[in-house]
Amino acid sequence: MLARHNATVTPVAKNNTITLYDLQLASGCTISPFVWATKYAIAHKGFEIDIVPGGFTGIMERTGGRTERLPAIVDDGEWILDSWLIAEYLDRKYPDRPTLIGDPGIKPLTEFIEGWLWQTAIGPWFGCYIKDYRDLSLPCDHEYVTTTRENMLGGKKLEDVVKGREDRLPQVPPALEPFRQILKRHKWLGGEAPNYADYRALSVFLWTASVATTPPLTDDDPLRDWLDRGFDLYGGLGRHPAMHSLFGLKLRPGDPEPWSKAPAMGGLATRNTGPQSTKSETDRIKGGPTTRVTS
Q1: Which residue range(s) make up the domain with 124?
Q2: Which helix H or strand E contains 227, and what residues bound it?
């Protein structure tokens, strides 16, 4: 007699599709970094995305009063809000599909990287592109974006906030050097394949590309490799035709070097496997055979 086993049925989204409530500019390009991260999370899991379009106004009406902020997804009738909660839901409900977060330690590290990028990049770029952000939004959203963002900026007019951005933009790329150094040694933040850390970080630059009418990074920025590969994932998910190029920032005399061309040094960049592995650096800092100190 054959033993009977209770079959485990892996849940599957209806028609392999998940509905996503988008936050868009007039061009149809996604404006929210949180929605961008959710788009990548859904694609990572192998699902098709059914987009519900719309801008800043009318979110409550579009979602039947369920939320005033996006993203929101609907998976076979079940509503899930918030980009982090959506990613955790997808991992929990579909464990047999590629993992987004995996080890619990990945979440706080991802939150750290994202928080650092928001302070280092989105903060300064927000002040440089906020007028473009408003001007590119749906016409029905202009008043909302103007009022809310001016309130966020302490009552300053958006036109005044962006003044002098040509002086501020060159200050941001050098501050991104720690991020470049990580990606110089690793193909993805997730290692050999992207994970949710990559998508949260990419969302910072996807947001920027949606509004950057003047580029924030130089043509030769080493971040270009990771960014291009990230934008190209899942059939070019980050390649909306209305996106602006991130590359082409022109430096002026006196602007800081945008990225470090010096070789990586120290325990943060190299592994000590014995004297031969550290000899070149030791010679350099002691003024030995590699680099001689002259008076």
Answers
A1: 106-236
A2: helix 223-236
